[in-house]
């Protein structure tokens, strides 16, 4: 506060600007002295003819604006942390500042915390060709959504999947970026396996599978199928790629009778001994009648090989005590 003969001025110590001015008329005479009450904080000013009292309330209420204009965003947020509408303005200003200075990822993190229009911000990063920053923005936005906001969650999850696959596709073709590819792949798998995204991914698993298939990403397609416990798709994939041992391993591990019945005819053509071993291990969980197609196909093409069909039938008779013809 400055005391002048005819007025009182309050000057901000941060920027030197006058934030308050009170002018006195001549009838009171010149201002003589200003005193502050150290207990209650009131300010007293007197002339030879009058005494005036000032009560200062919420003095720092606009300090955040000054810090914001000075680019001191952390301090600005500290001074308005209990005022959400002001915090939003500071974050938006900080995000703009970072964007203009090409600090795109930092900008994305700030934008994600604001109430700015989603489409507007996403378009900014797209036009600037900043895909990493866009992904950062979408990930942060996704983490801030409530479980009830299912449409928005589905939109962001699908979009992020597409962006991850685009990135992996570009990196995979460049052998000099192998380490970056592996890092991105791990990030993508962490995204797919995140408990927070589990419900959305499960409900939209067909769309995600289609995306993976459209990019020809069989490795991650199998990974996702396992996450979704879609073992039929996993076994089918291994069979299509002649990886019969791995297909049988999946069957044996998850012990799904229906999948055994479905894939045994194919597997018996290639690894009959291992298949029969797995049948025997499954014991009474398998109904021998449902394995007849696999046994018949194998018997017709077994040639001089050991007839594994007979071995399994003997197991059924002597161990399972099957008596049906």
TrEMBL record:
User: Per UniProt, what is one GO molecular function of this protein?
Assistant: protein-macromolecule adaptor activity
Question: Could you tell me where this protein is found in the cell?
Answer: Late endosome membrane
Topology with respect to the bilayer: Peripheral membrane protein
Q: Cross-referenced InterPro entries, in alphabetical order?
A: Pep3/Vps18_beta-prop
Keywords, A to Z, come to:
Metal-binding, Zinc, Zinc-finger
Q: Which GO terms describe its biological process?
A: endosome organization; endosome to lysosome transport; lysosome organization; organelle fusion; vesicle docking involved in exocytosis
The residues covered by the Pep3/Vps18 beta-propeller domain are 1-56
List cellular component terms (GO). Answer: HOPS complex; late endosome membrane
> Which Pfam families does this chain map to?
Pep3_Vps18
Q: Check the record and name the PANTHER family matching this protein.
A: VACUOLAR PROTEIN SORTING-ASSOCIATED PROTEIN (PTHR23323), VACUOLAR PROTEIN SORTING-ASSOCIATED PROTEIN 18 HOMOLOG (PTHR23323:SF26)
The protein, known as: Vacuolar protein sorting 18 homolog
What is the protein's species of origin? Breviceps macrops
């Amino acid at each position: 506060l400055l005391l002048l003969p005819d007025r009182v001025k309050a000057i901000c110590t941060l920027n030197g600007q006058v934030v308050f001015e009170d002018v006195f008329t001549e009838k009171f005479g010149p201002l003589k002295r200003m005193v502050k009450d150290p207990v209650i904080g009131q300010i007293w000013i007197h002339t030879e003819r009058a005494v005036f009292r000032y009560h200062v309330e919420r003095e720092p209420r606009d300090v955040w604006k000054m810090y914001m204009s000075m680019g001191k965003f952390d301090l600005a947020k500290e001074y308005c942390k209990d005022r959400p509408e002001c915090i939003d303005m500071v974050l938006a200003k900080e995000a703009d500042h970072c964007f203009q200075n090409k600090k795109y990822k930092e900008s994305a993190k700030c934008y994600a915390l604001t109430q700015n229009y989603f489409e507007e911000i996403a378009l900014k990063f797209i036009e600037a060709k900043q895909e990493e920053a866009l992904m950062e923005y979408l990930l942060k936005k996704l983490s801030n959504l409530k479980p009830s906001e299912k449409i928005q969650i589905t939109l962001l999850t699908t979009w992020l999947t597409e962006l991850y696959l685009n990135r992996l596709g570009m990196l995979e073709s460049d052998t000099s970026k192998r380490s970056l590819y592996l890092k991105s792949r791990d990030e993508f798998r962490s995204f797919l396996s995140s408990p927070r995204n589990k419900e959305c991914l499960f409900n939209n698993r067909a769309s995600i599978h289609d995306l993976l298939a459209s990019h020809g990403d069989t490795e991650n397609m199998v990974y996702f199928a396992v996450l979704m416990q879609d073992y039929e798709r996993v076994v089918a994939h291994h069979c299509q790629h002649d990886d019969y041992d791995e297909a049988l391993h999946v069957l044996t591990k998850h012990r799904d009778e229906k999948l055994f019945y479905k894939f045994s005819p194919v597997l018996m053509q290639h690894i009959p001994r291992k298949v029969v071993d797995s049948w025997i291990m499954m014991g009474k969980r398998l109904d021998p009648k449902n394995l007849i197609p696999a046994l018949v196909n194998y018997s017709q093409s077994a040639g001089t090989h050991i007839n594994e069909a007979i071995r399994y039938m003997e197991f059924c008779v002597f161990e399972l005590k099957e008596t049906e013809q």
